[in-house]
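Issue: ligand-bound run for coenzyme A - logging full I/O for the record.

Environment: standard queue, default settings, no custom constraints.

Inputs:
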Amino acid sequence: MTDWSSLPARPVLPERSTIHLFRVSLAASRYHADADWSALTTAERARAERYVVEPPRYRFLLCRRALRHCLAWLTDVSPADLAFAAARFGKPHLQWPEKTGWGFNVSHSGDWGIIAVAWQRQVGVDLEVIDPRLDTAGLAERFFAIAEQQQLSALPLEQQTAGFYRIWNTKEAYLKALGVGMSLPLGSFTVSADPQGTPGVIGGDVREGPWWGHGFEVATTAAGVVLWDQGPTLVQTWDAPAEW
Ligand SMILES: CC(C)(COP(=O)(O)OP(=O)(O)OC[C@H]1O[C@@H](n2cnc3c(N)ncnc32)[C@H](O)[C@@H]1OP(=O)(O)O)[C@@H](O)C(=O)NCCC(=O)NCCS
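Outputs:
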């Protein structure tokens, strides 16, 4: 299980050479309608209202507020003053402040969010809450490359579920690092399936990069992968402070 540390108090500056992962609890107990939501724009609040059901609505609010606080901490700008823009397939980036060098990517699943930040690197992250009822064999046959299906079936039975999620997380993190969404067919590239090894894109349509990876767990039932370019480095794992 990954160790998550408390963030040091200011004025400690974030280390630029490492990848930072922030674990965010999106549990119902953290949501209070009358809390301070002033960090969010009118458009973000309107987007939240388009979720007709809970918990997706409050989870979006909690995760976006944490993202704003995180990027505010990194750039020393007030959370509400940050502006985002989206690239062609929807990958968000900082529009204001300009040219900070900080890139980020977000993923959320169930009661957890994860924010990955990296300085002057492309970064993609994916998190999935493990669903023991999922038809992993059917999904693998439908979405995974043949070489991935072969790696998966070669794993011991007790590692099959973790192997399935390792492939899923890595494929998604790769698409998100590139920012290409589903325009890149899932079967056109191959990732490593070993849930105990280092995640990586190992064959097929390997664009840009080279890519480095790290696997993590935010809870015993939620696993993820972060991928980045521009060389190997450490990954620091933080608990997002409660006030974010
Ligand atoms: C939209 C997509 C980027 C991820 O979707 P997802 O897995 O449902 O969602 P995640 O929680 O991991 O990521 C959502 C976040 O990614 C970011 N994002 C949106 N578009 C993005 C893009 N093109 N590239 C990278 N990040 C993107 C946003 O910050 C978004 O957060 P928000 O909803 O709070 O604004 C896209 O890759 C997709 O639709 N994937 C399909 C899922 C799938 O079939 N995966 C199969 C893997 S084998």
